[in-house]
Every structure is written in C-alpha cells, then in structure tokens.
Amino acid sequence: MASRYLEPEIERRSRAAMTRWQSQRLREQVRHAAAHSPFYRRKLKAAGVNPARIRGLEDLPRLPFTTKDELKENQAARPPWGDVLAVPLADVLRVHLTSATTGRPLAFLDTREDWHGFYHSYARSLYAFGVRKADMVMAAFSYGPWIGYWSGFHAAQDLGCLVFPVGGLSTDQRIDALLNYPITALGCTPSYALFLAEHAAKKGIDLAKDTRIRITWHTGEPGASIPATRARIEAAFGAKAYDLPGLTEIAAWGFECDARAGLTHVHEDYCYPEVLDEQDRPVGPGGRGELVFTSLYRKAMPLIRYRTRDIVQVAGRTCPCGRTLRAFEGGVLARLDDMKKVRGIIIYPRRIEELVRPHAAVDEFQIVFRRHEGLDDILIRIDPSPSLGPAERDGLRTRLADELRTGLGIRVTVEMAEPGALPRWDHKARRVRDERTEVPF
Ligand SMILES: [Zn+2]
Description:
Blueprint: H1 8-11, H2 15-36, H3 38-46, H4 68-77, E1 92-97, E2 107-111, H5 112-129, E3 136-139, H6 147-158, E4 162-165, H7 171-180, E5 185-188, H8 190-202, H9 207-210, E6 215-218, H10 227-237, E7 240-243, E8 254-256, E9 263-266, E10 271-276, E11 288-295, E12 306-313, E13 327-329, E14 334-335, E15 340-342, E16 345-347, H11 349-356, E17 362-372, E18 375-384, H12 390-408, E19 413-416, E20 432-434
Parallel strand pairs: 3-4, 3-5, 5-6, 6-7, 17-20, 18-19
Antiparallel strand pairs: 1-2, 8-9, 9-13, 10-11, 11-12, 12-14, 15-16, 17-18
Helix pairs in contact: 2-3, 5-6, 8-10, 11-12
The structure holds zinc ion.
C-alpha cells in the first residue's frame, strides 16, 4: 500500500518535536500580532502581556481570548476590515465571509501564504480520506464569498486531482455531471448529500450504482460524524463518507482518517487546539470542553485563543493509523450557539439528529422549540418515506416519541407531516426553529 500520509514528517511527529514547533510559531505569531495588528496591540496591552516574554505553549494561558463577537464589533466600528489586519492590504490575496446566521458576516482576509496554508492542510485531510491524484473531484458547495467552495476546490487541485467546478450549477446539472464524468470524490454539506440522493432517486437514478463516487467528504455541518447520518450518506452513494470540520477564521482544522476509528485528528501544526472547561481550565483525556484555537500560520488575521463555541472531547486513545496529531472523539459534539433549554433541560439539536436518523423511514425532519399550553415544548416534525402506510406511520411516530423521550430525558411531541412537505436543504440546513424567541437559527 502506498503511504497513507501526505506529510508523514508532520503527521507522525514526536510530541516533543511538535511542541517545539508550536512554541516557536506561537512566539512569532504573538510578536507579529503585537507589532502589526492594532487590535491585538490593544488587547495584549490591556491584558498586561509583554510579547517579548512569550516563550512557548506554556505561556498560552497568559494570553487573552478572542471572540467572534469582538471581531464583528471591530469590523462594525472600523468598516470594512476592522484593525485586526496585520499586513498591508496590498499583501492580501483572498477575502471570504463567514456564513452568518445573525448580523453582518465577518470578512476574513488572507495573504497568499495564509491561503496556501488553509487549502494545503485541507489537502492533507483529503489525502487521509484516500483521495489521490488520479481522482476526479466535485466540490459541490456554493459559489460565492464563502470559503467552502474555494478551499475544497484548491485542496483537491493541490493534490493534483482533476476538479470539476460546479459551484454555480443546479442540482440537476450536478447529477448530470456525476453521471457523465468519471467523478470519484464529492465534497458537500451532509444535508446536501442527502438532498442530492433524494433528488436523484426521484428521477430514477441510483447514485450508488450509476456513478463512480468512492469517497465523499462533508463540511459546514457535523452530520458526517453522526453515525446514522453517515451510514445514510454512504448507502446513498455506495461510498465512504468522511467528516471535515473547519472554521473560516481558523482552518479546515480536522479530519477523520481512513482508519475510521471515530477520531478527528487536528492539523495542530497550523492551529494549536486548547480544550477548556467552564472555568477555562484545560480538560484531560476523555474530558469535554470548548475548543479554543490559536492560528499558527495566518499572518493577515493572526487569531490568538479564538473561542470556537464548539464542544469537543479530548481523545483518551491513539488512532490505529499511526498519526500522532492530537485527536478528538467524534468531531464537533455540540455548538454552544445551538444549545436550547427546555423545562430546565439542556438540549442540543445534534442529539436529536442522532436519535432520528437511524430510522430509515424518516426522509427529513424539523425541530421546533415552542410554548405549548403554557409550557416550553419540543415539537419534532417528521417527513416520512412515501412508501409507509398509515399504520406504519403511526408505529414510527410512537417509536420515535419513546426513543426521543428516553434519549433526551424529556417528553417531546412527534408529528407526522405529509411525505415531501418539509423543506429540503441544498447547503447548510436550518432544521431548527425557536418560536419562543421567533428567531430561527
Ligand atoms: Zn487516524
């Protein structure tokens, strides 16, 4: 077997060597930010940090956190770029916008080298999934200012793959391309993978049989790290599906490798991960906490201790693939911004997806948090497979209500919609509504 690593020297680096590398990059980044970013100069000063005294990772806890709200406020106060920018604008090559659900999106700038770092680490992930030069790749993300399309495209090209650009194509055109070109790898959101499969099935096309797709990868949402969602995508395409978590502001930071051990490796030579508990103390192996990243490679916007608001679990085991890169158990487990409280119980939409997706007869679903008869309530609307008869639909509803009550620790209302009645999602899904605040997110 050819090497399973694109960069074995990095992917299997000893802990001591990795720590030395990270410490050196951290020193350089903090000095660079302090010297060239007015935003960080103010922040470091306010925190009483002398950049010259930052020696390595051991000094990280002395550095202040950066939040997305802060970056947004900074850009609002000093439009359009804010003053995080630590290079002359002439040195900037790329701009991408974050996909904001509320307010103005954040504009994120990169130099040529920054951009290379973003897509090259992504390419390392594709290689770990098994994508090779001989593959033909379709990156089915939206064409526009979002990073998903561009990073997927450039990453595949970085490996030498032939990339079919489909950013601006319709779903019908994309299906047509999958049928007519020897496309073997497909990247898209997990919701779009399911939408594509359902759309193809309606046209009598079986993507598993009628295309050459052997690998799919998924970003933008955590679905591919949910076993039942992944199994559904794999069955639809007759391929292996992989999760690729990323953040516009940091990197396409992680990947599950072809050992498929349920672990998400981190490109820690590009971005240093901390996992912190509610008191901002590091959690140990097996512990869960908020993921905080320090960018070790980006010079235009060198984020320090950036709070991702994603919850991860530090792996307490090594991956059979032999990589020494730090790993998490099962991708992003929860997003703090998605957390809901219902009658005192904390609910994450991902947990509902974990419970609903194993039911093959559920084509789509929707989660509504509402006030019902004076109480907070969760309504799960189910879009059942058209093949179900009335009695089977009723049975499915009862089973789901039981399993959701047990799994969430709270009673939920399950309602059956007509087949095909609920919205489908051609990019990131918006399956959750909170009618209590009337702000869908
Ligand atoms: Zn691995």
